[in-house]
Design brief:
The complex is a heterodimer of chains A (114) and B (111). By secondary structure, chain A is mostly beta strands. Chain B is an all-beta fold and 111 residues long. Chain B has no helices and 11 strands. In chain B, the strands form 2 sheets. In chain B, strands 2, 4, 5, 9, 10 and 11 form a 6-stranded mixed sheet that branches. A 5-stranded antiparallel sheet of chain B has the order 1-3-8-7-6, with no helix packed on it. In chain B, 33% of the residues are buried. Classes of the chains: A mainly beta (114), B mainly beta (111). Chains A and B meet through strand 5, strand 9 and strand 10 of A and strand 4, strand 5, strand 9 and strand 10 of B.
Chain lengths: 114, 111
């Protein structure tokens, strides 16, 4: 059971480049989410999904797109990378969006935009 | 503004010491999570609670709803407990499953 798998672990982009951060879970979880972690700040929600075909914006959605075509996958797209998007990104999933569901995190992607 | 504050920001202890990390929040919540972030960066869920107290091994989490406060205790601390501990809450007035995270407490346990 792999849990939540994020790829890549590290990525360096130049300003204006695009890329997709991959996230997959094999636990049949309905809820998936993307966070960014910056020094001196708590994790902040970028986008989330409560099931296949359903996505919604979080606290800091600008510059990012998501889609949820399957229950397993929830990719995060940066269409035109900016230095402000330099951060560590975490994908997380849970069985449901309800109160009683603990979060399972991926190992993170460290992104640097130059 | 819905806020989550953790204290202390940094904590250094000697092996065997009893450790307490605190989390305070501004308004009513429906759930509170305690997470552990390893030195390598991975994040693990430790506890999820909405009332009372939970215990797992040497870790104990308590929450006082009236005082809007939670504590994470580590008994008989060990160097392998060195990590960042993060508190996250779901505020009652927040839609969906949004969590608000504290900045974390960096714990270092020396042998």
């Amino acid at each position: 059971n792999a849990g939540v798998t994020q790829t890549p672990k590290f990525q360096v982009l130049k300003t204006g480049q695009s890329m997709t951060l991959q996230c997959a879970q094999d636990m049949n979880h309905e809820y998936m989410s993307w966070y960014r972690q910056d020094p001196g700040m708590g994790l902040r929600l970028i986008h989330y999904s409560v099931g296949a075909g359903i996505t919604d914006q979080g606290e800091v959605p600008n510059g990012y797109n998501v889609s949820r075509s399957t229950t397993e996958d929830f990719p995060l797209r940066l269409l035109s990378a900016a230095p402000s998007q330099t951060s560590v990104y975490f994908c997380a999933s849970s069985y449901s969006s309800g109160i009683g569901s603990p979060l399972h995190f991926g190992n993170g992607t460290r992104l640097t935009v130059t | 503004k819905n806020e989550v504050e953790q204290s202390p920001q940094n904590l250094t202890a000697q092996e065997g010491e009893f450790i307490t990390i605190n989390c305070s929040y501004s308004v009513g919540i429906s759930a509170l999570h305690w997470l552990q972030q390893h030195p390598g960066g991975g994040i693990v869920s430790l506890f999820m609670l909405s009332s009372g107290k939970k215990k797992h091994g040497r870790l104990i989490a308590t929450i006082n709803i009236q005082e809007k406060h939670s504590s994470l205790h580590i008994t008989a601390s060990h160097p392998r407990d060195s990590a960042v501990y993060i508190c996250a809450v779901r505020f009652m007035e927040t839609s969906g499953s949004r969590l608000t995270f504290g900045e974390g407490t960096q714990l270092t346990v020396n042998p």
